[in-house]
User: Which sequence fits this backbone?
């Protein structure tokens, strides 16, 4: 029996409240993190991801309390990302009860952080989030899919800043440095609800041997089926489809199971 | 004395909060996180958690090895139960490919890396198939239940009779071992939803009966 494909609701948290962004901008308020966590857990979520999008230091203190409260009621794994700049930030989040931390900008700025986190907490605690965007300019290594007129560039600071780094090369590097998992977001697809970026997801899955979570673009259960059928991805993340109750985790899983995908039901 | 007073050993390597919360949610009256294991009297159950790396974890128990080994012998003879989760189970064996130090050698066998044919770590939900051996931890857990794994190494016990459940990931990997009241899980019951909660309750039940 193969490993079940994981369905992961994602909660963007701003100052202790769950919000949902579109294209990494314009956030709308949507509710209490602990209530959301409980709801998704009871629907059969395999894991949860909290991304702290709070800008202020004070807000990040709030996040630690959120993590603590979630850990008390939740008996499935959860990851916390956003605003983790240094080892101490990661340690505080893990000691507050998170199972994994996700790092993004900090990993690009200071790749040694991946190695440090791995050696102290173990590979399984270290998720590297890669925000990738198609780029048609430049002479960088093209994505390994033939005929593509673009490459995937790693973006940081919430998708705002380019790095000139090729996402496929970066994925391989973070694996070598000690990442246990990659959370891969397509900035182009995010918020469109038109489906995951299959090319991006496939390129990254083919390049590494660690689990990959696909993110960005899920608008209906069919998109999850597509990404599981067409790539070797291990998990699919979604936010708005669950937040606004267009579907539930349970309904998505039944649908996937009926279409031949191994899921935990 | 409290009815169910559980000790979690802290190797100093991460998140014990969710394990503590899981024990409390499932009925432990008191859960202590210990950095020292010199004196285990008064505890009705001991948990070796599953976070960290093999060598640092072995080094962290070295000063208390004698008292720990004694507690393990007691558990194997049906006394105060002990539960090793993931790394906490791997430590019970002779040695591990993850490190160079000797294991605790309380169970005979080795810890080896997962097959190169599959993604490592083995991260996510997989199902367990129970063997026909009687199990205390699996009371009320049905064959094929999903549990949450996160690991890169797995145990190969010499005595196959202690293996209570297996899972398949590249190879057949022992998911649960039991020897008297010494329990080891390769998966994380504290992260395995309702199924994990049943196992934790079963463990705590044994703890109550031995106190």
Assistant:
């Amino acid at each position: 029996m193969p490993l079940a494909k994981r369905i992961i609701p994602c909660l963007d948290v701003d100052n202790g409240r769950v919000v949902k962004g579109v294209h990494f901008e314009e956030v709308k308020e949507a509710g209490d993190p602990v209530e959301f966590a409980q709801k998704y857990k009871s629907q059969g979520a395999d894991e949860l991801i909290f991304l702290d999008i709070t800008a202020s230091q004070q807000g990040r203190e709030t996040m630690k309390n959120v993590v603590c409260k979630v850990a008390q009621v939740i008996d499935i794994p959860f990851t916390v990302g956003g605003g983790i700049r240094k080892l101490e930030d990661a340690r505080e989040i893990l000691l507050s009860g998170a199972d994994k931390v996700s790092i993004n900008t900090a990993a690009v700025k200071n790749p040694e952080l991946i190695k440090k986190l791995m050696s102290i907490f173990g590979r399984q605690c270290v998720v590297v989030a890669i925000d990738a965007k198609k780029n048609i300019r430049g002479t960088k290594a093209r994505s390994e899919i033939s005929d593509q007129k673009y490459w995937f560039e790693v973006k940081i600071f919430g998708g705002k800043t380019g790095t000139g780094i090729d996402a496929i090369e970066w994925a391989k590097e973070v694996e070598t440095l000690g990442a246990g998992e990659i959370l891969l977001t397509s900035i182009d697809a995010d918020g469109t609800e038109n489906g995951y970026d299959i090319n991006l997801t496939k390129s990254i899955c083919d390049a590494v041997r660690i689990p990959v979570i696909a993110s960005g673009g899920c608008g209906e259960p069919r998109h999850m089926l597509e990404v599981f059928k067409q790539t070797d991805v291990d998990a699919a993340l979604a936010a708005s489809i669950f937040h606004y109750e267009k579907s539930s985790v349970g309904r998505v899983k039944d649908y996937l199971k009926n279409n031949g995908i191994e899921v935990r039901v | 004395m409290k009815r169910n007073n559980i000790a979690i050993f802290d190797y100093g390597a991460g998140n014990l909060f969710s394990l503590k919360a899981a024990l409390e949610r499932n009925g432990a009256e008191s859960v202590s996180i210990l950095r020292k294991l010199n004196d285990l009297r008064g505890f009705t159950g001991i948990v070796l958690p599953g976070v960290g790396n093999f060598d640092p974890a072995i080094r962290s128990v070295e000063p208390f090895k004698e008292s720990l080994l004694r507690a393990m012998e007691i558990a194997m003879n049906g006394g105060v139960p002990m539960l090793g989760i993931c790394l906490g189970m791997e430590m019970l064996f002779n040695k591990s490919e993850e490190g160079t130090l000797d294991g605790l050698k309380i169970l005979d066998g080795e810890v080896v890396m997962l097959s190169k044919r599959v993604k490592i770590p083995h991260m996510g939900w997989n199902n367990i198939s129970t063997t026909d051996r009687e199990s205390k931890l699996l009371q009320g857990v049905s064959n094929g239940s999903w549990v949450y794994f996160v690991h890169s190494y797995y145990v190969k016990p010499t005595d196959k009779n202690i293996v209570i459940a297996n899972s398949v990931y590249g190879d057949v990997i022992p998911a649960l071992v039991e020897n008297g009241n010494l329990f080891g899980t390769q998966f994380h019951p504290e992260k395995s939803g309702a199924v994990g909660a049943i196992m934790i309750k079963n463990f705590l039940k044994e703890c109550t009966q031995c106190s």
